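Sorry, I am new here, but would you mind making up a protein's amino acid sequence and the tokens describing how it folds?
***
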Amino acid sequence: AYMRHFCGVHAGATFLVAGEERLTFAEVLAHGEAVARALAARGIGKGDRVGIAMRNSPAWIALYMGVVMAGGVATLLNGWWQSHE
């Protein structure tokens, strides 16, 4: 609820900048909510762990937000790990 409120209050303001990519609070919230819906449709809910192994990017932040909004626990994995690790 806090993410929805905060992003709603600042909806039109720039939230993320990555090179030429610029996303507003409203856009990132929409992506996060889409992730949350997709996870919920696959049975992910409160307390379920969801691994995230990717580079830092706006998509990473939206994914993290979606996991939390779905009630999951974002389990952060080092995207640079090698297969033997």
